[in-house]
Give the backbone structure.
Amino acid sequence: MNKITLNRRYKKLQELIDGDDYFSEERIRMRDPLLYFLYVGQYKRNGNQKAPLMPALSEILTQQAQRSDYEQKLQQKYQNLSQYHDFPDLLSEQEINEEELEENTDELIRLMHQRFLNGDDQKEINYDLVDNNSDYDDWNEVNRELEERYFDDM
């Protein structure tokens, strides 16, 4: 991947981090259920998640539907990949302290950032719109590269 494309993706990454919920736990959980489970889900499910005081019925139904969708995707990925890898049991009850959970969450988000930069989120992102969009260019960097090429060619 060339440097311009990588810089454009990095700029889009910063935009998503600053103004979107693209890297929220909920969106990550739905995009990659198995990765979420391995880093965070197996622990949060076992008592570390705080429930709202009195959610509305519509919120409860939405959460149940999302949870069902997540569990179905997780089960499917788990079955497809568990023959090749030694994953923890889906029903495991692992204990973890808040600090370790936070570290795992941070690592998961870093992995998702790297996946975005590598172009691995093609189901969610149209990379052509990012890679070919000069609005994402860092003109200081572009000018610096042009100067370097000019002096290298002399």
User: Anything to note?
Assistant: The mean pLDDT is 81. Helices lie at 3-19, 25-31, 33-48, 57-82, 98-118, 127-131, 139-153. The CA atoms of residues 4 and 142 lie 8 Å apart.
